[in-house]
Design brief:
Helix content: 25-40%
Shape: elongated
Distance between the termini: 44 Å
Order of helices and strands: EHHEEEEHEHHEHEEEH
Structural class: alpha+beta
Largest sheet: 5 strands, antiparallel
Strand content: 15-25%
Strand order of the largest sheet: 1-2-6-10-7
Number of helices: 7
Amino acid sequence: MSSHLNSGSTGYINPSFDDLELSAKTLENLLISVGRFDLATIGFDFKEILDIIRAKISVKSTYALFTRNSFKISDSVIYLNDVQFLIEKIVHSQIRNSDYLFFYLLTIGDGLEKLSKKFSIEGDLLNSYLFDFLASEIVEIASDKLMSKLKELLPAGENNLTNRFSPGYCGWNITEQQKLFGLFPKKNIGISLSNSSLMNPVKSVSGIVGCGKEVEFKDYYCDFCNFKDCYKRKLKENQFNG
């Protein structure tokens, strides 16, 4: 492993807009896939929407890497120095054999969030919802790109990745967010955390991904999770219904 990847090391990865591989057709397919939009009533063509997104987002991310000799995973708890993350069984089942753990933060900024609010104030609820929806999807696309970048930091053969998991999902209590943010400098990438563990800008994510020889990416365990509003559950339901 490279010397700059010592346990506890941190870094920044800022995918460019081109890294996201968005196109007018990508946006159209996203809207069609959820079946909630009448495309004929949208006040913009998809090239215009793409140009707006390009101008409004700024993807920033940071990570903290820990090696196996600096953490222990037992009984659905990650023991990391003097911090204990209570991850529950779904997350534990995937990351328990990890040789490395990446904790991460990512944001696309508040540009699309502000645009959505502007439309809402003006009474244009369709476009308010449209840009809020697309912002949420772009956060997920950016997070997938981040995972690819993290994978490249590890030695070949040791860089299999698990699913990525965030506090508030899969039984991992959202209050654990406070511990996760404690791994990063207070001036991280411009994301602040409220007392109730909500992030600002809203279109931000935090989480953990396990890496190593003996881990693998598996489908999300929606049948075992009681969080009905999870975006992964909704995606699977839309795919099934489609």
